[in-house]
Request: fold
Amino acid sequence: MKRMTTFLAGLLLISSLWPQVTVAQQIQMAPNTVFCNLGTKTQPGYACPLTNFWNYIVQYVGPFFGVDQNILNKQIANYTIASTDCGKTVEMGTGSTGFRTVTIPAVTGFPGTCSVKIVNGDSTNGKAISGLTGIPSNMLWPGQAATVKIVNGAWYWTEKPGAWVLTSAVTFNVDPVAGCASATVPTCDGLGTGADAFNAVQTAVSLSLAQINFNGQSGTVLLADGTYTEQITCAGKFIGNTEITIQGASGHTASVIWNVALTGLGSGFFIKDYCALWLDNMTMNVANGANGIVTQLFGNVDVGGGMAFGSAAGAQGTMGTAISIGSMGYGSAVGNFAINGSFNWFLLGQGGSWTFSGRTITGASSLTFASAFVGGFLNSQINASSATFSGFSGVSGFKFKLFTGASLSTNGVDPNTIFPGSANGIANGSNFDGGPYSTSNPGFLSVAIANINFNSANTDTAFVIPLPAGFSTYQIQSIKISSASGTLTTATCAVYTGAGAAGTQIVASGTGVTVSTAAANTANNMQTLTLQNVGSTQSINYSALYFRVQTQEGSAATATVTITYQPTS
Reply:
């Protein structure tokens, strides 16, 4: 609209200077001419070529360099914007040209109203921007565009790209030796290998959090063979996806080494604030006093079958801890991984939830667990139902130590027959003899399962209800849905005493889910389900309850479900 206004103002200006002509004079004009008078209005007029008319416009209005002329300038090599690009679109790359840099030079020699649109025409590589900051990472990702314009004698971005919205899976490559370092003007995009890879995993993690909308597509950070010493912080939720994978190539567990030292954070991975990572195909060596993996505040880690945990020499303290699940943190063994080193604790629960359920963990011989193989504090929940620990010959140390508030689920199996160690486990200072506590007053217990899929119709999740020794019945206090990935209001659910919607309904069939947000401190970010058939005057003895998603959400959606109960007799 502004350009049109300027154009019309120019015409009005010229018309005020234009000679007055008669109809007869206009009739005598030749084709493709206009009647012009470059002298005074009192002098006779004469016909001029049409180009002279535009010269008059340029003289009194100025050139239209800020107007998009819909002219495409395709470039496949590094390129510097030129004055001839004003009003044009510069397309960097065509399909799979590769990583390139486009430079925006000083404004000297450019028209004062110059405007240039820059488009990344590649589908596989980014395009770095040099000479002007102001867009995220100074990078145009595949398919993105931006417009730069001279305003008051300086370049400004008048159109900036948003998040890179994926249409297919993405893999960022990391090579600690050959990869490029983070810089104001990027020298790589991480989408290639060798020199085109990043040299730091944190670069890929931070980029994934801040600049990518995964749009339901998977994200992977692929580690080249080598030694890594980074301490990764992942704080925040990935847009459009619940989890990304950080892994070495399949079969390269022994070639991708992650050494965790007791410096800085003192942890290899610090995961919180709804960040979720899947770690796989690497060997993690943990120094004395350090922590390999730490989750808290709704952070989640999934440990794949290609992981191996070892110990490494450290500067001080006792042996390190492989996995620490802090307050409201979560973690799972999603594969059958290996333990090849000694630790102070292999797993330490400090208010979070971890499951070994259904996995086979293989251990080396002659290992030592200085405090215990598994420890539980501060209402932590550890599930080892149907888990198997093989190898571990000649291992020394307590099998587990649980303290007031912690719970251990083994599906009724004596945990001393499950975990490795030379001494039976203890709880609350006495020999552990089954159940969450070794105490005559267990209070309220909870079983929580994270990342339940609310986008899978008519699917059961089994909640095994562990009871302390001497107890066989319990009373349900509440069933809650929390820590959702987003809105769940399309989904419906129920809870039964049998799989496949069999048995007694604990939560009525077709119960609507009212969780509508994942934001903290916000109404409707959790829901307490209405119970039936288990009133305040009734206890039950079912060994498991089945949470059933009935109507699916319709898009990717997960949440944590927690069943709180009290042993009664």
About this structure: Confidence is low (pLDDT under 50) at residues 1-27, 50-65, 429-442.
